[in-house]
């Protein structure tokens, strides 16, 4: 019995010596640090990529060629210029969609009650209700 009491006293002292910012897992609830929180939701979002010269130039060429097929005289010139402008815009948007990517957004209720969002490229290994810690590199599961 004396050994059990001594062991319990040593464990209590060791737990009290840990810094407050580290979570302490005991048999009961987890005491959390200031950068800790609970995942509220996780969802995927599609983000457009960047456009560029290739999409603009390619679209303008196609649009200009199509516009040149319409009308005659001055109307043909206006249609060619309009087709090139519209084609350039459409080509740029197409390139943005081709270069799009999916990011995973995790919303976390922090210990202070605030809600923060974190993004990452890979699907996270947590779900709503999971305790996490915010670090300079993103989130880490506790």
Q: What structural class do helix, strand and pairing data support? A: alpha+beta
Main beta sheet strand tally, sense and closure = 5 strands, antiparallel
How much is the radius of gyration in Å? 29 Å
β content, as a range? 25-35%
The spatial strand order of the largest sheet comes to 3-2-1-4-5
Helix content: 40-55%
DSSP E strands, number: 5
Distance between the termini: 34 Å
What pattern of helices and strands is seen along the backbone? HEHHEEEE
The overall pLDDT average reads: 78
Total number of helical segments?
Answer: 3
The coarse overall form would be rod-shaped
The low-confidence runs, each spanning 5 or more residues with pLDDT under 50, are 16-28
What does this structure look like?
By secondary structure, the chain is α+β, with helices and mostly antiparallel strands. It has 3 helices and 5 strands; from the N terminus they run αβααββββ. The chain has helices at 2-17, 53-68, 74-98, and strands spanning 36-47, 101-110, 115-120, 131-135, 138-141. Helix 2 (53-68) runs antiparallel to helix 3 (74-98). It starts with a helix and ends with a strand.
Question: What would you say about this model in short?
Answer:
The protein is of the alpha+beta class and 142 residues long. It is 40% helix and 26% strand.
Write the layout of secondary structure elements.
Elements (H helix, E strand, L loop, with lengths): L1 H16 L18 E12 L5 H16 L5 H25 L2 E10 L4 E6 L10 E5 L2 E4 L1
Antiparallel strand pairs: 1-2, 1-4, 2-3, 4-5
Helix pairs in contact: 2-3
Descriptive terms for the model:
142 residues; five-stranded antiparallel β-sheet; rod-shaped
